[in-house]
Request: fold
Amino acid sequence: MKKALALALALTMVLGLTACGGGDKPQQPAGSTPAASTPASSTPAAGPVANKDKPLVWFNRQPSNSSTGELDMTALSFNKDTYYVGFDANQGAELQGQMILDYITANIDTIDRNGDGVIGYVLAIGDIGHNDSIARTRGVRKALDTAVEEGGAIKSDAVGINADGSASAVKDGKLTIGGKEYTVRELASQEMKNSAGATWDAATAGNTIGTWVSTFGDQIDIVASNNDGMGMAMFNAWSKENKVPTFGYDANSDAVAAIADGYGGTISQHADVQAYLTLRVLRNALDGVDIDTGIGTPDEAGNVLSDDVFKYVDAERSYYALNVAVTAGNYTDFTDATKPYAPVANQLSQDGHPTKNVWLNIYNAADNFLSATYQPLLQNYDDILNLNVEYIGGDGQTEGNITNRLSNPSQYDAFAINMVKTDNSASYTALLNQ
Reply:
């Protein structure tokens, strides 16, 4: 890590480069929405850079109000080199719901395990205040016709136990398949939060499926989950042995492999593209080049993304990877979730891209997707992009467990932050403003 030398030595050191606005003609990245435009080109600054001016990427958890979902544009515009990297949550949510509906349609003759005329499903909710979790809950309910709208939006509340279909957050759905009408009911849903406060908790999901089975037994025909960590916990605890299709999200390697054993399917959020974008945006800002370099525009090594795997939304200062459904028909193409995406796996030269230091945290070191898929991908890309990244693993419960390890931000050239809660951006920016 770089450390400032004593002034008495009369030496100075460049702690990092930051990007300044001033490109002649900003380019629009491939895959951007029609109204979007690419951020302006940047030029490197000379001399030490204040922490508040260093490149910053929020990733995986978009700064937003956890109650309303409204984006926190103050955090997203912290400085001119601040962006968000994630994936298109709504597109992925719709894919997950459609994937489940397609499975029901293809297996309609056998899906109703007890023949009661009701296709019953249970739903594991990750974090009731997380935009991605909200979107996935809504996507399942919309596809299965169990959605209830309020104020123009589908309700995403957990219903608890809904044995008789009277819960106010959902309704009994109706599907017509092969000329016959079927009832679909969300029998139960719950936020998977452990006693210490960690959400998206796989162990809680594994225990909860046991409770649901004791209540509903063979009324459960489908198990749906906001992610694969929880989905696999329920699959291994009960649904695999009982041959009940389980659907998750993230395309974690263990979930993809489990499709061969009856796991119904998952959604790849193109973690390989997200991880690349997380570090590439920082690399470009540090180099003082157009932010689209190596993204929508090829770099000198030939790295470039096509418009069918990402989009950029200028108004949100956000890059989004696009999603792909992973099912029994294509899962063998997704067995290695930690392999870099080939079109952007070309090594950058040290001459044009000297090594820079990056501080990056994973909000929960126990999170399967982030620790077993996302971080290994980041570790592959950091070498390709000549970035010396310090990885910090949090406890999934408190921002303080992470922020107390950012005691000297002057040691770093750029930052990549994965918050515990989407409301808490100020916990980090306050440290950079000091």
Q: What stands out?
A: DSSP finds ten helices and 19 strands in the chain. Residues 14-84+271-302+310-321+334-433 form one domain.
